[in-house]
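Support request from a user on the community tier.

User writes: "When I paste my structure tokens into the form, the page sometimes reloads and wipes my input. The last time it worked, I copied everything first. Here is what I submitted, just in case something in the input itself triggers the reload:"
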């Protein structure tokens, strides 16, 4: 090997070592960031043994990355759903506190039995009136809680859509930089990391699939197959609903006019925070509200008064609602739980008479005005213990006593909350494992990087020593001339 060739080899080695040192230093500095991927310099050997860095590459694992995105979406959905179900579970509270509709109904039944055993006792009549009022109030407040939960889910959907649009704009900017840099041969590895991080954040809001294209370009689709990003971002739109009641139907989320979350869609997204919020707003919240409404309907039906002569219509008794009619049997009357109230005719503070609980409000069952008349009260106790038919669409036990139906409603809510809680824990564990696997595969190992740096330093020292030796040889040649 000639001296000039040896000098070229040493110089190229020094230059390569410099780039490699910068790369390992970059890895050490960025290793603490979860979104940072390990970088490496690609070195080739040229003519005469010279070496050079032709590119900077980053560690990737497409399969693990896609698994992590899927786990992120699944976990976000369950977390959103669990949060809402936990809020609605406040309506049943701790069973030992007896604050649920089922507990209040049981208390009313007990008070009614006590009053039936001593129908002349005004204090017991007052206890029935107070217990009935507490039950109606519990149903009213439960409706308020459910609708507030649905309204919050709707508002959170609007926030989620805004975040999706913001992320898509940022992804668009980075993607343009990446494609241009790839074409021109620039180092785009940090930009690729940043884009992956943004895509990961996007997967929290909606389930997605990512398709790689030429020049490091990407296309992003929802898990239902609707394009979110192809060269440029698509418009994601949602009209929030400001006021919610039991009859309110929330709006769907659209991507370029195609419904992807909420409403009906053949290309619906089934994972991500948006899907969880929509499930809470449109399914869990609506179903539980239906159960509350059926409890209210059952109360009005059980305490209804019938004309003893058989000529008049059945009318509300102890419990009533604004229409003053008996709701249709086994049919959900949407929002009834928020409207049910104790008949003011038996409320002394409203000018009513407690004795009408015993004697009848619209129809007179106690025609002889006996203070010890218990027939009507005993009939009410019996009616509460009778099996009745509920709307099967409500999701609770459709053929049972009112008390058992109320209990099955509480069980339905708690069972679903526990199921989602278990699923949320599982999905969180899966996300953690997927993230760890990706990090172990593409992240930075500090010990490895420090070892590489030592190797590079040795190579650098050897190259410097070679240059020094060549310099001495050249100097000897010059001195010999």
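"...and here is what came back when it finally went through:"
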């Amino acid at each position: 090997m000639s001296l000039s060739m040896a000098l070229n080899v040493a110089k190229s080695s020094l230059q390569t070592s410099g780039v490699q040192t910068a790369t390992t230093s970059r890895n050490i500095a960025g290793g603490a960031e979860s979104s940072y991927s390990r970088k490496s310099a690609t070195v080739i050997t040229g003519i005469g043994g010279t070496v050079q860095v032709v590119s900077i590459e980053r560690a990737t694992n497409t399969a693990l990355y896609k698994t992590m995105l899927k786990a992120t979406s699944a976990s976000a959905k369950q977390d959103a759903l669990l949060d809402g179900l936990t809020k609605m579970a406040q309506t049943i509270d701790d069973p030992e506190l007896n604050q649920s509709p089922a507990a209040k109904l049981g208390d009313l039944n007990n008070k009614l039995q006590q009053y039936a055993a001593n129908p002349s006792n005004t204090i017991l009549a007052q206890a029935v009136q107070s217990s009935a009022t507490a039950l109606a109030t519990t149903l009213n407040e439960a409706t308020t809680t459910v609708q507030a939960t649905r309204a919050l889910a709707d508002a959170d959907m609007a926030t989620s859509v805004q975040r999706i649009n913001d992320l898509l704009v940022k992804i668009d900017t980075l993607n343009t930089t990446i494609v241009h840099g790839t074409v021109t041969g620039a180092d785009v590895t940090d930009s690729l990391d940043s884009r992956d991080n943004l895509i990961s954040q996007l997967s929290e809001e909606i389930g997605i699939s990512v398709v790689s294209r030429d020049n490091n370009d990407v296309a992003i689709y929802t898990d239902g197959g609707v394009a979110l990003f192809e060269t440029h971002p698509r418009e994601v739109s949602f009209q929030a609903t400001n006021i919610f009641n039991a009859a309110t139907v929330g709006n769907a989320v659209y991507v370029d006019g195609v419904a992807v979350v909420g409403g009906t869609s053949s290309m619906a997204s089934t994972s991500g925070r948006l899907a969880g919020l929509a499930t809470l707003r449109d399914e869990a919240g609506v179903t539980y509200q239906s159960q509350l409404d059926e409890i209210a309907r059952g109360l009005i039906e059980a305490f209804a008064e019938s004309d003893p002569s058989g000529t008049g219509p059945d009318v509300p008794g102890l419990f009533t609602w604004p229409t003053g009619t008996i709701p249709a049997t086994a049919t959900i009357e949407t929002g009834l739980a928020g409207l049910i109230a104790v008949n003011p005719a038996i409320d002394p503070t409203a000018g009513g008479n407690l004795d009408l609980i015993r004697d009848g409000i619209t129809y007179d069952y106690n025609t002889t005005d006996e203070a010890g008349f218990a027939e009507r009260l005993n009939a009410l106790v019996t009616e509460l213990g009778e099996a009745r038919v509920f709307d099967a669409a409500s999701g609770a036990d459709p053929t049972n006593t009112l008390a058992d139906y109320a209990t099955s409603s509480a069980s339905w809510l708690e069972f679903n909350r526990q199921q989602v809680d278990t699923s949320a824990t599982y999905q969180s564990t899966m996300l953690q494992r997927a993230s760890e696997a990706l990090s172990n595969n593409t992240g930075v190992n500090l010990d490895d990087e420090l070892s590489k740096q030592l190797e590079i330093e040795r190579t650098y020292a050897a190259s410097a020593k070679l240059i020094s030796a060549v310099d001495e040889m050249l100097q000897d040649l010059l001195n010999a001339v």
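Agent notes: The reload is a front-end session timeout and is unrelated to the input. Residues 3-59+443-480 form one domain. The longest strand covers residues 51-58. Escalated to web team.
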